[in-house]
Amino acid sequence: MGARAYGAYSDEPGQPEGLIYQPFVNYVNDVHHFYAEVVTQLTSARLCAEIEDGRLVIASVNSEIRRPHLIPPPRSGGHLVLVTAAGAETVTFHDPAGHRPEAIVATLPMMLFDRFSAGRGVTLKLD
């Protein structure tokens, strides 16, 4: 059974579009036996703590994160990236929609990443 059967993704008119976090977490936990959790207050401190604890973070960001220096970013989500490293100064993430190699796997200053972040996401513990 795939994630869609859990209600984890919607592209139906009149419904929220894209990944629906809680059904996705249920799917990941049930089918793949990872520990996943919805995070609605994803601050930079929380992001660093999750990474330090060995988790990956799927973070909701504005899609213009792949061109961080071109426009002032709106503070909204709608685009997901996989954060693989985070510290007080920088964040490294994988953006499958990156338009250049340096945008696919990118490292940004934490302050700049925060400007694109919607402050929500999903944490994944793989062991």
Automatic annotation (TrEMBL):
Gene3D superfamilies listed in its UniProt record: Cysteine proteinases
UniProt protein name: Peptidase C39-like domain-containing protein
